[in-house]
Amino acid sequence: MIQNTMFNIESPSVQQTPSVSNLKTQTTPAESLRQFGDYLADALNQVNQQEINSQEMSNKFLTGQVDVDQVMIASQEALLSLQFTTQIRNKAIEAYQEIMRTQL
To answer: Which residue ranges does the record annotate as region Disordered (predicted)?
Structure first.
C-alpha cells in the first residue's frame, strides 16, 4: 500500500470560538508565516528524500540487491510526489496572479 508521507492529514476537530484567554496565545502573522515556511520546507525535503530513495533503489537493482517491483514502487512514489508538488506550485502561482489582477 502506498502511503503519502508528504502531508500528515488528521481528522478535522471541532473548532471552538476563541475566548479572551486564547487570544493571548494566538500566533502573530510573522510567526504564522514562519511556521508555513517551515512546513513547505519540510514537504520539499520529503519530496527530495523520495527522489534520493528512488535513485538508491535503482542502484541496488543494478547490483541485484532488490527486485524490480521495489524499484518501480519507489520511482512511482517519487514521481507522484514531484507531480503533486508541481501542481501545488502551479495553483499557488495562479492564485497569486489572480490576486494581482484584482482591482481595488
So the answer is: 1-28
Place of cell 496572479: 97
The dihedral over CA atoms of 24, 37, 82, 53, expressed in degrees to the nearest 10, equals: -100
Measured CA to CA in angstroms, residue 56 lies from 12, 44, 51, 71, 88 at distances of 37, 18, 9, 9, 26
Model pTM?
Answer: 0.66
Cα 7 to Cα 9: distance, rounded to the nearest angstrom:
6
Return the DSSP state at 7.
Answer: S
